[in-house]
Amino acid sequence: MARDMSDKDILKMELEQLQKEVKNTREPVSKTAKEICEWVEAQSAEDPLIKGVPEDKNPFREKGGCIIT
């Protein structure tokens, strides 16, 4: 799409995007990082990568062994 546009059109699109982004509220990284860490710790009890999946509920478990005769 950008190949079909002139430099002026591309700059106009970038300016419009920047005008939209400047209206977004900003939060300090120190605050949001703390909130993310708290959320991850709160959700860790339900995380199957941390807790593991019970064998009877694991859809990827081996259903039967391979027998070579």
Automatic annotation (TrEMBL):
<comment type="subunit">
    <text>G proteins are composed of 3 units; alpha, beta and gamma.</text>
</comment>
<feature type="coiled-coil region">
    <location>
        <begin position="1"/>
        <end position="28"/>
    </location>
</feature>
<keyword id="KW-0449">Lipoprotein</keyword>
<feature type="domain" description="G protein gamma">
    <location>
        <begin position="1"/>
        <end position="69"/>
    </location>
</feature>
<dbReference type="InterPro" id="IPR036284">
    <property type="entry name" value="GGL_sf"/>
</dbReference>
<keyword id="KW-0636">Prenylation</keyword>
<dbReference type="GO" id="GO:0031681">
    <property type="term" value="F:G-protein beta-subunit binding"/>
</dbReference>
<dbReference type="GO" id="GO:0007186">
    <property type="term" value="P:G protein-coupled receptor signaling pathway"/>
</dbReference>
<comment type="similarity">
    <text>Belongs to the G protein gamma family.</text>
</comment>
<comment type="function">
    <text>Guanine nucleotide-binding proteins (G proteins) are involved as a modulator or transducer in various transmembrane signaling systems. The beta and gamma chains are required for the GTPase activity, for replacement of GDP by GTP, and for G protein-effector interaction.</text>
</comment>
<keyword id="KW-0807">Transducer</keyword>
<keyword id="KW-1003">Cell membrane</keyword>
<dbReference type="InterPro" id="IPR015898">
    <property type="entry name" value="G-protein_gamma-like_dom"/>
</dbReference>
<keyword id="KW-0472">Membrane</keyword>
<feature type="compositionally biased region" description="Basic and acidic residues">
    <location>
        <begin position="53"/>
        <end position="69"/>
    </location>
</feature>
<dbReference type="InterPro" id="IPR001770">
    <property type="entry name" value="G-protein_gamma"/>
</dbReference>
<dbReference type="Pfam" id="PF00631">
    <property type="entry name" value="G-gamma"/>
</dbReference>
<keyword id="KW-0175">Coiled coil</keyword>
<protein>
    <recommendedName>
        <fullName>Guanine nucleotide-binding protein subunit gamma</fullName>
    </recommendedName>
</protein>
<dbReference type="GO" id="GO:0005834">
    <property type="term" value="C:heterotrimeric G-protein complex"/>
</dbReference>
<keyword id="KW-0488">Methylation</keyword>
<feature type="region of interest" description="Disordered">
    <location>
        <begin position="50"/>
        <end position="69"/>
    </location>
</feature>
